[in-house]
Inverse folding.
């Protein structure tokens, strides 16, 4: 038996370990007008305070909604929450709709208004952080949207895998296991943009055709590569060449945090040229390589919910990894909530498999090969016979060969999970995705490219799907929350923001010095 099979058999001694997976979703979405123009209106007051509403906030821009579910142990509950929050959101958008894709349509830097979070110091810090991002990378990159999937395994899983441990041993063992998961995500996670990449095409406003060396094809105002899956994850989309050079170690949590802390404490000559406070006005929080830990744009990150006034670094350092955040998901335009149940089930399978599978420390050569594989898949993942690098020794496999081997192992896990739940849902996902491996036209990217071409470009397709989703949201009936729940949270969020503004005792300059 393989080490994966042995570990799977070990955790399966307690089938209930698969019944208490913790999941949460953060879905970003741009507000657009019926004329398919990026909304320049403020975040609607009826949605509550973007600073404090726990379900509906904004990300980089006032026009970029972020819809957040609480942690759930049940997939049906998770989607009920997600659909309810979308319903309330759309009901308060008036004539605007949520753009159904990751890559925006027809935007310029001047269209994008930074997110506003009130007059309290913490709210002003959030806006200033975004101003720093704008100064460093430009606003157009920042409003590229996606879906984040937060995931953790129950204590019963670790009990079966590690046996009895004291608190300190368990904290270290879990953190090491999650770091092993992350290393395997880098090794094999290219499967995610292959199956679920949903940005094979971009609006021509995102590409300087005179400067690119890529052989784009064009349909109206839309550019695409013949075999691409996720241009959002490529150098055209949400990428950062400066951060790629950081090479933050994934060998251990201590090494990871050391690299992260070093980046938040080391000044960057490029960012020094921007200045921190120019003419009496702040341009960024600081001139360091990273203003905050959250500026590290990785496709997956170890996370822990910090306590009040606690930094991300401090929370992880003191209490270890609590969950992981998958950030490589494009918005699924065929789902009214941006992600499907099939995607969630596959992510469950893939992440558990990545924990149970051997995960050696990653050499620099292997890391480079992994990044190369991701780049190949985002640019040409649907190309027949595409070859990927295996490990560090120059061996290659076709994407189809490698994906088939991975799905074969994952199917064994699916069988165990279905047996524990008395269902066949996870196996059904594996069976369908096995077909997708050998038929790239069945990927989301394959279907989307065909539909964009049929519609006559991104604008027409985006409007068509966006308005379809409006009808879905407005006709929805609450399944988990109620209208009163939503309205109470709006009221509570405005009260919290008001109290935060009243409670400030420091001026903003002193507040920044105290926090950085």
């Amino acid at each position: 038996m393989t080490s994966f099979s042995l570990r799977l058999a070990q955790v399966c001694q307690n089938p209930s370990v698969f019944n208490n997976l913790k999941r949460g979703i953060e879905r970003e979405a741009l507000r657009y007008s019926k004329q398919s123009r990026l909304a320049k209106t403020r975040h609607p007051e009826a949605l509550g305070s973007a600073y404090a509403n726990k379900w509906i906030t904004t990300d980089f821009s006032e026009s970029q909604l972020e819809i957040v579910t609480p942690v759930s142990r049940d997939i049906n509950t998770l989607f009920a929450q997600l659909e309810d929050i979308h319903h309330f959101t759309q009901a308060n958008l008036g004539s605007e709709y949520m753009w159904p894709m990751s890559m925006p349509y027809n935007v310029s830097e001047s269209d994008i208004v930074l997110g506003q979070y009130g007059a309290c110091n913490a709210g002003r810090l959030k806006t200033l952080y975004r101003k720093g991002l704008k100064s460093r990378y430009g606003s157009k990159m920042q409003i590229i949207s996606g879906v984040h999937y937060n995931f953790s395994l129950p204590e019963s899983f670790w009990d079966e895998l590690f046996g009895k441990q004291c608190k300190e041993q368990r904290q270290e063992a879990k953190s090491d296991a999650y770091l092993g998961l992350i290393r395997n995500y880098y090794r094999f996670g290219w499967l995610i943009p292959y199956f679920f990449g949903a940005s094979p095409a971009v609006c021509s406003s995102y590409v300087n055709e005179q400067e690119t060396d890529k052989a784009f094809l064009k349909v109206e105002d839309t550019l695409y590569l013949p075999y691409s899956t996720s241009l959002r994850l490529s150098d055209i989309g949400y990428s950062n060449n400066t951060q790629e050079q950081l090479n933050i170690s994934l060998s251990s949590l201590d090494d990871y945090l050391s690299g992260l802390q070093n980046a938040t404490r080391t000044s960057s000559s490029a960012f020094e040229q921007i200045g921190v406070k120019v003419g009496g006005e702040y341009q960024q929080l600081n001139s360091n390589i990273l203003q905050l830990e959250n500026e590290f744009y990785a496709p997956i990150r170890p996370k822990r919910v910090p306590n009040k006034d606690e930094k991300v670094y401090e929370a992880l350092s003191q209490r270890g990894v609590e969950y992981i955040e998958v950030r490589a998901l494009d918005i699924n335009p065929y789902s009214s909530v941006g992600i499907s149940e099939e995607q969630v089930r596959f992510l469950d399978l893939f992440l558990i498999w990545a924990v149970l599978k051997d995960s050696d420390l990653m050499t620099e050569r292997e890391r480079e090969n992994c990044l190369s594989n991701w780049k190949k898949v985002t640019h040409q993942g649907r190309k027949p016979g595409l070859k990927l690098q295996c490990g560090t020794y120059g061996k290659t496999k076709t994407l189809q060969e490698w994906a088939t081997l991975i799905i074969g192992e994952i199917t064994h896990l699916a069988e165990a999970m279905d047996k524990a739940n008395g269902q066949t849902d996870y196996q059904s996902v594996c069976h369908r995705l096995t077909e997708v491996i050998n038929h790239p036209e069945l990927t989301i990217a394959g279907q989307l490219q065909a539909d964009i071409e049929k519609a006559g470009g991104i604008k027409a397709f985006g409007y068509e799907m966006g308005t379809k989703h409006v009808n879905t949201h407005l006709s929805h009936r609450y399944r988990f929350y109620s209208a009163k729940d939503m309205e109470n949270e709006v009221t509570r969020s405005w009260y919290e923001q008001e109290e935060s503004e009243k409670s400030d005792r420091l001026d903003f300059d002193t507040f920044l010095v105290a926090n950085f």
